[in-house]
Amino acid sequence: MTFLKHFGTYFLFISTITLAQVGINTPNPQGTFHVDGSKNNPQSGLPSQAQLNDDFIVAKTGNVGLGTISPSVKLDIFTQGTPTVPVAGIKITDGLQGKGKVLTSDDNGVGSWKRQSLELVVGTMGNGYNLPFKFDLNYFQTGSSIVLPPGKWLVTVNMLAVNNQLAVLDIDDYIWFRSTFSDSQFTTNKSPDIIGTADKVSGMLQGAVTGGALKYNIANGQLVINNQSLTAKTYWLIVGDSEVIGNPDPAAYLDRLGGSSWGENIISAVPIQ
């Protein structure tokens, strides 16, 4: 008789696990596995949000909820906090925690606390391009580039514009030039990853310049690149699309524009949302 009693209880337990949901401290589980920490949920129907505050649930999707019976992601924490009265929902004490630190992931998704810092990517400057003082809608490779991981980036370009010393420029002689990025060092087509119409960084240089003298100017600006691939991608700086006013000496050009010869030249980028 004892055996039959135990067998019946065991059979009922197995049937409950197999065919229904498992509840701890509640006869009214709302998921595959439901723990009511304070044992304050109703015998039937849905618990209130206040009653769910101490609940833990595993939904049939495999999602885990804390304070919610409808977790929408793998771990869904609801603390009932508000923008004016926030309630913390996570605490990780791994020895690296500290005031002002942020949870940062490595390449494998492993998180740790680190000081908040700005991620900065700096490009590599090439030889530059000698851009003639003439009207030319074409672009030319500078050999300079920047490698951007997947994501959206605010890219800053800083270039020194300086004339070669062999040509004379009158006060009404000037060149307006543009720069942007291509996807290949072998082409001069603008990258389709550049977002919006603000897709160029431009500058100018104007005379007068006497023979053997130098004149300087700085081209500085920003554009947005969205690398939607799954790997890091190299973007190449191209210069050109130039317009010229006046009648400059045919021998005049911008010396090694966008190249490593000038310490002012840099390509840098920071990630943005």
Structural description of this entry:
This protein is mainly beta and 273 residues long. It folds into 2 domains: 2-115, no CATH class; 121-272, Jelly Rolls. The chain contains 2 helices and 18 strands. The chain has helices spanning 2-19, 49-52, and strands spanning 22-24, 33-36, 55-58, 64-66, 75-77, 101-105, 111-115, 121-122, 129-132, 136-148, 151-162, 174-182, 194-195, 201-206, 216-227, 233-245, 253-257, 266-272. It has a 5-stranded mixed β-sheet with strand order 1-2-3-4-5, with no helix packed on it. Strands 8-18-11-15-13 form a 5-stranded antiparallel β-sheet, with no helix packed on it. It is rod-shaped. Keywords: Signal.
